[in-house]
Amino acid sequence: MNNESAVQEEIEVTSHRPDPIKFEEFINRIKNEKNFPQNMNKVLLERYLKISFNDVDCAFALLKSGLEMRTKASYLFTDRDVMSSEIQTACSTFQFVPLPKITKDKYKVTIIRFPKCDANLYDSVQVIKAALMMFDASYTIYDYKDDGFVEGEIFILDVEGYSFKQFLDLAKNVKTLLFYTSFLQDTAPVVLISNHICNTSSVFDGIMGMVRPILSKQVNDLVHFNRYGSGILEHIEREVLPEDYGGDEKCINDLYEDWLKVFKTKRDYLLNDSSWKLTENM
């Protein structure tokens, strides 16, 4: 590699990270907040600043909003044991799969789907809790092997196989669903590029009827519906997608098993309430 190429590569890698001077300012801002947890994950905090385009005030406001929202639904953020029977069962009734390859536009793709399962095992509150745990785990991992972050994220929600019985359980816990939707929309350290919903059905129309009123116009405009999973190929490169969606990657079940292995390594982090809990000194 010549010197010019090395310099260019260094610039590209650096652009995947937040500005180090701004990051130090961000850390000091957090340290001065006596009610904030003081042992938050470094990668998580870098992610907040990166998606805020190095605006410390913006990153701090987003972080604070997320911490405050967690206190309003603490039942979703305590006793988060990856190995508990409740979470293990939840993980068998849905799949959260961050795909290993990044798109040519430097976007990360995550698929969330509901494989056919015994509907009697489905507990929408535990599924939402497990999903939030998986989001939290993913936020502590760099998107690139060179320790950097993507420019945005694409989500694919595959609702094939989601039954009417599962819908009834979700409708019974609509407050938790609405909290989950608001929490991700308003506080997640993510630059949302698009949200593709595929294999839709009349059952899912009922779910959208519950959440659409609280979606911002910006998020609503980023939602795209695909009647079939293969329609995703019109938006995302073949080499990024699993073979189940017409792509070149291995099957979604194998990718999910790979992710679960990573997820389990985050057990101690997720069990540590002090990673997110505000103190009484507010």
From TrEMBL:
Q: Which GO terms describe its molecular function?
A: phosphatidylinositol bisphosphate binding
| InterPro entries found in the cross-reference section | CRAL-TRIO_dom, CRAL-TRIO_dom_sf
Q: Name one Pfam family in it.
A: CRAL_TRIO
Q: Pinpoint the CRAL-TRIO domain residues.
A: 96-253
Sorted alphabetically, which CDD domains does this protein's record hold?
SEC14
Q: Which Gene3D superfamilies match?
A: CRAL-TRIO lipid binding domain
Which GO terms of the cellular component aspect does the record hold?
membrane
What PANTHER family does the database record attribute to this sequence?
ALPHA-TOCOPHEROL TRANSFER PROTEIN-RELATED, GH10083P-RELATED
Q: What is this protein called?
A: CRAL-TRIO domain-containing protein
What is the originating organism of this protein? Chironomus riparius
* UniProt lineage: Eukaryota, Metazoa, Ecdysozoa, Arthropoda, Hexapoda
